[in-house]
Specification:
Number of helices: 14
Largest sheet: 5 strands, mixed
CATH architecture of the domain at 20-31 and 264-428: Alpha-Beta Complex
Shape: globular
Strand order of the largest sheet: 4-7-6-1-8
Mean pLDDT: 94
Low-confidence stretches: 1-11
Length: about 425
C-alpha cells in the first residue's frame, strides 16, 4: 500500500508513513527500555515539603488532570477542604472554600509534583510520603502513606475528627519510625517483592496481601532496630501487618518512578500516566509530555459491600491506575484469581483479560511474571496507538467510593478509547 493510499484510508486519525512508523517504533523501544532499566528502591518516608519538587505550604495536590476549583463538587472537593483544615490554612470549611476560590490556596495535580495519590489523591504540605528512588538514575516517585482499612478516610472523601486523628498518628508516629528504619538499612528493593507477590496471587493493585507480607518481613528487624520495641513501634508493626493494602501505595510510588523514566521521548506513544479526577479519565504519553488527553469516566463494574447500591457510589478521582500503566493491576489480572468476583467474573475471564492486554502493549516484563500463563511476563508498556487501532482499552482494577464519602467496594473499569485516539492523532500529526 502506498503512502498516498494509506493517508486516504477512511479514518479520523492520520496514518503514519513508513518513515514515521519506523520513528515511532524506535521511540517506543527507547521509552520502554528506559522504564525497564529502573531499579526501584523504597528509600525513605519524608514530609511533602521536603520531598516533592515545587510544593509550597499553601498548595494541595489531588488526583487526575487539573480542573478549576469551582468544578470540584463531590468527595474530591471535601477532601481538599479537609486537607486545608488539616494544614491550618483555614479555621472552617467555608473559609477554606473562600481561600480556594480566591487562589490563596492552590489545587494542583499530583503528577506535576512527582507523586501519585489514591482515590481523591489529596496530598498536602505536612503529610509524609513514601519515597521510591531509581538506584541507577536517582529519579524518584512518591505517594502518601496508606491511611488504613477504615471505610472513612480522607482518601475516600471523608473529613472528620477520626480522620484528623489518624492522619496525625501517621505523621507523628508511623512515618518517623519507617523513615528511621529505611535510612538505617539503605532501603528495600521493590522488583523482587513484586516478582514474588505476582507468584503468590497479587495483582499489585486491588490485591497486595502477599506484597505487604513480604515487605513486613523485610521491615520488622529494621523498624525494631532503629526505634526500639516501645508501644509506638509495636503499633507501627501491627498497622502494617493488619493492613493488606499497605503495599499498594509503595507500588504506586514505584509506578510513578518507573513511568516518569519514559517521559518526554519525541514521537513515542507509550502511556506514562493514567488518572482520574471526579469527572474525567485522562492519560499522558511519552511523546506528548505533560499534556492530558481526557474523556468522561465510564461505568465502574463494581462488587459493593453488603447493603450498598450503585446509586450510593460516585467517582472521587484516583491515580492507583499508575499500577496498570506499568503492567500491574488489571493488566496482570491472570495473576490474581482471588479477585475474580471484582474483575472478570471467573479465572478464565481474567486470563482472557490479560491475554488481550498483550495486544496493546510493547513488550513483556522480564522479571514480573504470571504463573498461570506459564510464567509469561506481564504486558508492559501500553501503546496508545495500538489501543487506538485495535479498539482494546486497558482494564483497570480499582476501588469504589460512596457518594457521601467512604469505601464502597471494588471492581473493573474499562478505560474509554477517546483519549488514546486523541493522543495517537496528536502524535501522528
Amino acid at each position: 500500500m502506498t503512502t498516498a493510499s494509506r493517508t486516504a484510508r477512511t479514518s479520523e486519525r492520520p496514518v503514519l508513513t513508513d518513515a514515521g512508523a519506523d520513528l515511532r517504533s524506535r521511540a517506543n523501544e527507547t521509552a520502554v527500555s528506559a522504564m525497564l532499566a529502573v531499579d526501584p528502591v523504597l528509600v525513605d518516608v519524608a514530609p511533602v515539603l521536603e520531598a516533592l519538587p515545587g510544593m509550597t505550604p499553601r498548595t494541595i495536590l489531588t488526583s487526575g488532570a487539573p480542573m478549576e476549583w469551582r468544578e470540584y463538587t463531590g468527595g474530591q472537593r471535601r477532601a481538599v477542604l479537609g486537607a486545608a483544615l488539616f494544614e491550618g490554612l483555614a479555621e472552617t470549611l467555608d473559609e477554606a472554600d473562600r481561600l480556594l476560590h480566591a487562589g490563596e490556596i492552590l489545587v494542583r495535580p499530583c503528577h506535576d509534583h512527582g507523586c501519585v495519590g489514591s482515590v481523591t489523591g489529596v496530598t498536602s504540605a505536612s503529610m509524609p510520603v513514601l519515597v521510591v528512588q531509581d538506584a541507577a538514575s536517582g529519579r524518584r516517585g512518591h505517594c502518601v502513606l496508606y491511611e488504613g482499612s477504615d471505610r472513612q478516610r480522607l482518601t475516600y472523601g471523608v473529613w472528620n475528627a477520626t480522620v484528623h486523628d489518624r492522619l496525625m498518628w501517621i505523621r507523628r508516629v508511623l512515618a518517623p519510625r519507617l523513615s528511621a528504619a529505611l535510612r538505617q538499612t539503605g532501603g528495600v528493593r521493590i522488583n523482587p517483592i513484586i516478582r514474588r507477590a505476582l507468584g503468590m496471587g497479587d495483582d499489585l493493585h486491588s490485591r497486595n496481601t502477599a506484597a505487604t507480607a513480604v515487605l513486613f518481613q523485610q521491615l520488622v528487624d529494621p523498624v525494631l532496630g532503629a526505634n526500639g520495641a516501645d508501644a509506638d513501634t509495636r503499633e507501627v508493626l501491627a498497622f502494617i501487618r493488619q493492613n493488606d493494602l499497605f503495599f499498594l501505595h509503595v507500588a504506586m510510588a514505584t509506578g510513578k518512578c518507573i513511568a516518569d523514566a519514559a517521559t518526554g521521548i519525541p514521537h513515542s506513544s507509550i502511556v506514562t500516566a493514567m488518572a482520574l479526577n471526579e469527572k474525567q479519565f485522562a492519560l499522558r504519553t511519552s511523546g506528548t509530555g505533560d499534556r492530558w488527553f481526557r474523556a468522561p469516566i465510564p461505568e465502574l463494574r463494581a462488587k459493593l459491600f453488603e447493603g450498598l447500591r450503585v446509586e450510593d457510589t460516585a467517582f472521587m478521582g484516583g491515580e492507583s491506575l499508575i499500577t496498570e500503566t506499568v503492567g500491574l493491576g488489571g493488566l496482570a489480572a491472570a495473576a490474581a484469581f482471588s479477585l475474580q468476583d471484582y474483575s472478570g467474573g471467573s479465572a478464565e475471564a481474567m486470563m482472557r483479560i490479560t491475554n488481550e492486554m498483550y495486544r496493546i502493549t510493547a513488550t513483556e516484563h522480564p522479571l514480573w511474571k504470571i504463573p498461570s500463563l506459564g510464567f509469561r511476563g506481564v504486558p508492559y508498556g501500553i501503546d496508545a496507538s495500538l489501543v487506538a487501532w485495535t479498539g482494546i482499552t486497558p482494564r483497570i482494577h480499582m476501588g469504589a467510593a460512596l457518594r457521601e464519602g467512604g469505601h464502597a467496594g471494588a471492581g473493573l473499569l474499562i478505560a474509554p478509547i477517546e483519549p488514546f485516539r486523541e493522543a495517537d492523532t496528536a502524535l501522528t500529526a
